[in-house]
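Worked problem 6 (solution included).
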Amino acid sequence: MVAPMPFVVAAARPLAVAVFIAAFHQPRIVLATYSAGAVILILGFIRAFRVDIPRARGLDKAVWLGPVLYAAPLAVFSAEHFTATRSIASLVPRWIPWHMFWAIFVGMALLAAALSFAVRRVAGLASALLGLMFFLFVVLMDVEGLARHLHNRFAQALTLRELSFSACAFGLAAALATGNWRPAAQRLATAARYIVGFAVTFYGVEHFLHPQFVPVIPLELRLPAYIPSHLLIAYGVGAVLIAAGLAMLANWHARAATTILGIVICTVTLIVYGPILAVHPADIDVGMNYFADTLCFGGAILCLAASIPMEHREPSSQPSPSYPAPAD
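Solution. The predicted structure is:
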């Protein structure tokens, strides 16, 4: 068994502390979200470090962690659907019937996708359906909100976030495609790379325009005072986002750039959002949601990297059929 990467070991620390604190006298939603995320994370790491990572080389070891880091936040969001059902149902557009049904249905879908990614069973189908679901979120909810607030940068960021989650899920489905599906999967992966490349470039520019807000996905939360070096974090992350986004758009060392971006985002999740989670372990909106959302984005980016062809193939151990290397 391969020893965990440093950032993987560090990932468990704020989560473990927060789970311990949340276990005492906390609302049901707190216990459910932490428990769901922890279970999926453990299951995924067992599979990744015993089976997947030993087969990979170099940066691709991180790529194999993509489905796990994508899955755990999905489980967190699923738990929210089951414990805060009425609140989430209120987000469904009025013209769509059966609000409570759809809130529970989406929760079940997120949990199914999380389990599939963690244990690597029917992950190709799960990722394709997940991509479709996120795309429907964009079409049915985000576009309407963006149309009402066209110049609101937070509405723009949220729409690009959901679209990126969709594109990365389709990218994972493309990486897992076999046989006659491969040509169509390659075109899908290319489209996903362009979408995410544009999104992260946009996010990078936002970091330079508004460095006072939290990094990676530029939402409403300001960087708290107990996080040092605000400008260094904002400009550093912004520069990485722009560089990786342009590399994706130009298809210049795109796989390596996407992988490095995923690693950077997961690291930022630990060093920025980990302390926020530790300070606000019972505040789902400020603590867990921002941590899980950013980790999900980092994991999704690593999944997208799996769908991008390698620039130069080198002989290596045969990849697992459950997560094959993409064809050229």
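Discussion: Residues 182-209 form the longest helix (28 residues).
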